[in-house]
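Figure 6 in text form: structure in, sequence out.
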C-alpha cells in the first residue's frame, strides 16, 4: 500500500488541536482526540508532533498573533497625530468584542506556558509582537508597560465576565504614555529647528 501525499495534513492537525482546546480545554487534548478531530490516523499526529507540547507550541504560534495583528492592521499607530491611548483602547475593545471563543482560546494557550516551559518562548513572542507595534510610537520601556496593562485588562475581562470599559482603559493608558513633546522622564523635549 502506498502512502497518500497529503501536504496539508500537518496544518489540519494543528487546526484540529485548536478546535479540541476550544471545545474541551487543554486537559481534553491528546493525540487520539486530535487525530479523531482531524480525521487522520493516530500515527499522523505522532509523526508530525512527537509530544503534546510540540502540538501546543504549533497551536499557540498559529493563534497568538491576533491582537498584535489587529493593532498592526488598524494602521492607526502609523499616524503620529493619532491619540495612541485612545486607539489602543478602541482596538482592545473591538478585539474583545469579536470572536470571544478565539480570544479565550488564545489566552488559554498563552497561559499554558505557566505549566509548560516549552511554550514560554512563543508566549513571549505574543508580548514582543505587540510591544514592537507600540514601540513605533513610544519608547521600549513604555511599550512593555502598555503591553502588561492591556494583558491584565484583557485577562480581567475574560476571567470575571466584566464589561470592557474603553474609557477606563484609555485613561490608564494615558497615564503610561508620555504626551507628545514630553520625554519619558517627564521633562519637555527641546524643539529642534
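Output sequence:
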Amino acid at each position: 500500500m502506498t502512502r497518500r501525499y497529503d501536504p496539508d495534513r500537518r496544518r489540519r492537525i494543528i487546526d484540529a488541536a485548536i478546535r479540541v482546546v476550544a471545545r474541551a480545554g487543554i486537559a481534553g487534548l491528546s493525540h487520539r482526540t486530535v487525530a479523531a478531530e482531524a480525521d487522520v490516523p493516530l500515527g499522523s499526529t505522532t509523526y508530525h508532533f512527537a509530544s503534546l507540547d510540540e502540538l501546543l507550541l504549533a497551536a499557540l504560534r498559529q493563534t497568538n498573533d491576533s491582537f498584535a495583528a489587529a493593532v498592526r492592521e488598524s494602521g492607526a499607530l502609523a499616524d503620529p497625530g493619532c491619540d495612541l491611548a485612545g486607539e489602543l483602547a478602541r482596538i482592545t475593545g473591538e478585539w474583545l468584542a469579536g470572536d470571544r471563543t478565539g480570544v479565550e482560546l488564545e489566552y488559554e494557550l498563552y497561559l499554558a506556558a505557566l505549566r509548560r516551559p516549552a511554550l514560554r518562548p512563543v508566549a513571549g513572542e505574543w508580548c514582543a509582537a505587540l510591544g514592537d507595534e507600540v514601540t513605533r510610537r513610544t519608547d521600549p520601556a513604555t511599550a512593555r508597560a502598555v503591553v502588561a496593562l492591556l494583558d491584565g485588562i484583557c485577562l480581567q475581562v475574560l476571567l470575571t465576565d466584566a464589561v470592557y470599559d474603553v474609557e477606563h482603559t484609555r485613561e490608564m493608558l494615558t497615564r503610561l504614555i508620555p504626551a507628545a513633546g514630553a520625554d519619558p522622564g517627564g521633562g519637555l523635549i527641546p524643539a529642534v529647528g
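Caption detail: The longest helix spans residues 140-160.
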